[in-house]
Design a protein that fits this description.
With about 260 residues, chain A is of the alpha/beta class. Chain A has a domain of about 70 residues. Chain B folds into two domains: about 30 residues; about 210 residues, MetI-like fold, CATH 1.10.3720. Chain B has eleven helices and no strands. In chain B, helix 4 packs antiparallel against helix 9, helix 7 packs antiparallel against helix 9 and helix 9 runs parallel beside helix 10. The longest helix of chain B is centred in the C-terminal third of the chain and has 38 residues. Classes of the chains: A alpha/beta (about 260), B mainly alpha (about 280). Chains A and B meet through helix 2 and helix 3 of A and helix 8 and helix 9 of B. Chain A: Keywords: ATP-binding, Nucleotide-binding, Transport.
Chain lengths: ~260, ~280
């Protein structure tokens, strides 16, 4: 079952004394189980910091995060994470990299061979299982990293700008895959991005994060039909959402 | 979902995979040599120029012999040269292996211990500034003419490149990979074997290669300082006897020794980290 994530008066300050940097918060947010929530904001607004805290990889300065009521105190092992710089290691093949997720958990990857194959097929990498990351394009690497983040069947997925370094066409294509996956399995997704369009296209809820210290300025439910294909993106309603969010950032002097 | 009746992973058995790797590594070496023909042409040209310039300008043999003289006189003394190559080789290899055996664990310990990072690390960095070879006469005075002082001097010149590169190697895993490992709940040991160690190998090899270059230098200088055998000893005696031809023959064998050591380390690198960017064939 996908988890509901509650964030309660969470804030993060780096350092102490006069040099302290108030990076984030206070933030209150409830991420419903099975929803796709984007944290949308400019770089340096603390959205990645928030994601790391949700993963339990960074301690909160104040406040707390709860997964289905259980307080996060250590790195959570029931989630899948995808970073902007992927976590593929150069000494392993694509298949080996996906298996690394399992091996680090002390699991035998052999019984997962079928699942790994299915995952690779779902992101159109079926012929590349034995290739090494350096033999793949940036987009293919992110697709492989996507499989790595999913192989242990996590109910919660955290994405930290995973498409940030890709070209526009590749981004578009991976977005479609991401959406298909989410629609099929309905995990809880927290998606960090600085692309307004990307956030509106993929999310059930967009959290508009404003910078320094990062705060969730507005939480917008995106009421558009699924799947959000080219037709939906061309619709006036889609454009309206994008326009409204641009307005928020403009008022904040970001745009 | 896990499909239980799916065909097993078609992973090949271990032995053939390793044999294939060795063949590929040797093949790579041969290709590298084959690709070196412009350099070889230059190399031959250089020696031809040397030969004929010495003859043309009438340079006396006790100042600069011709390459052909070096070859014929060296050949006449080949048993001793081979003997001494073995002596210097033993000193170099023993010292080198010892330096790696000590430097790697110490580098590892410093990389992972904040306490050692604040104590031993600055100490090593300042020692790095000291020309280690300056200790050579002291070790000869303390330990005499035998094998031990030479090995120690080789250890001294090889240790720092190994240790400092190991510290750097084990201390610089990317934030993403560190976080990824933590998010799997893997303990420090599993993280080390699966991720940290392989990730550190390329940088470790930078140190191994640098140390391999230093090893024969250390052994030779140690022999200059006090010994009754070895190529360093041979060269210093030949020079004293106004026999630069024999000194050059000694230098030639030293060069071969250094190349062999460096070649072994490069081959090991090729075998251990064929995936690394410096190892890729284009």
């Amino acid at each position: 079952m996908a988890a509901t994530i509650e964030i309660k008066s969470l804030s993060k300050t780096f350092g102490s004394g006069p040099q302290a940097v108030h990076a984030f918060g206070p933030v209150d947010l409830t991420i419903e189980a099975g929803s796709f929530v984007s944290l949308l904001g400019p770089s340096g607004c603390g959205k990645s910091t928030l994601m790391l805290m949700v993963a339990g990889l960074l301690d909160a300065s104040e406040g707390a995060i709860y997964f289905d009521g259980e307080r996060v105190g250590a790195p959570r092992t029931d989630i899948g994470i995808m970073f902007q710089d992927n976590t593929l290691v150069p000494w392993r093949s694509v298949e080996g990299n996906i298996a690394l997720q399992l091996e680090l958990r002390g699991l035998d990857p052999k019984p997962y061979a079928g699942r790994i194959r299915d995952l690779l097929r779902s992101v159109k990498l079926e012929g590349f299982a034995a290739r090494h990351p350096y033999e793949l394009s940036g987009g293919m690497q992110q697709r492989a990293a996507f499989c790595q983040a999913l192989v242990h069947e996590p109910d919660t997925l955290l994405f930290d700008e995973p498409l940030g370094k890709l070209d526009a066409m590749t981004r578009e294509s991976i977005r479609t895959d991401l959406q298909a996956l989410w629609m099929a399995r309905r995990p809880t997704v927290v998606f960090v991005t600085h692309s307004i369009e990307e956030a509106v296209q993929l999310s059930s809820v967009v959290c508009v994060v404003t910078p320094r210290p990062g705060r969730i300025e507005r939480t917008i439910e995106i009421d558009l039909p699924w799947p959000r294909d080219m037709e939906v993106k061309a619709s006036p309603a889609f454009t309206r959402y994008v326009h409204d969010i641009q307005g928020i950032f403009r008022d904040y002097g970001v745009l | 979902m896990v499909s239980s009746n799916a065909p097993r992973d078609p992973a090949p058995a271990h032995a053939p995979a390793h044999a294939g790797r060795l063949i590929r590594a040797v093949e790579w070496l041969v290709l590298r040599i084959a690709a070196a023909w412009p350099f070889l042409t230059f190399f031959v040209g250089f020696f031809l120029f040397w030969e004929y310039a010495v003859i043309l300008f009438g340079v006396p043999g006790y100042i600069l012999p011709t390459p052909s003289e070096i070859v014929t006189r060296g050949w006449a003394d080949i048993p001793r040269l081979l003997d001494y190559t073995l002596v210097t080789g033993t000193e170099s290899v023993l010292g080198y292996l010892l330096a790696v055996a000590v430097g790697l664990p110490i580098g590892l310990a410093i990389a992972f211990s904040p306490m050692l990072r604040r104590t031993l690390y600055p100490f090593f960095v300042s020692l790095e500034m000291v020309p280690k070879i300056a200790f050579a006469p002291l070790f000869i005075a303390w330990l005499g003419f035998g094998l031990l002082p030479k090995v120690i001097i080789v250890v001294l010149v090889c240790f720092f490149p190994v240790a400092l590169n190991a510290i750097h190697a084990f201390g610089s895993l990317s934030d993403e990979l560190t976080r990824f490992c933590r998010s799997t709940g893997a303990g420090p040991l599993r993280t080390f074997w699966k991720v940290r160690l392989p990730a550190a190998l390329p940088q470790c090899f930078v140190g191994f290669k640098y140390a391999a270059l230093n090893a024969t230098v250390g052994a030779t200088i140690a022999e200059f300082m006090g010994s009754d055998q070895g190529l360093g000893f041979y060269i210093s005696i030949a020079t004293g006897n106004m026999r630069p031809d024999l000194a050059f023959a000694g230098i030639f064998f030293l060069t071969l020794l250094g190349l062999a050591l460096f070649g072994c380390v490069t081959l090991a690198e090729r075998l251990l980290i064929p995936w690394h960017i410096s190892q890729r064939r284009h």
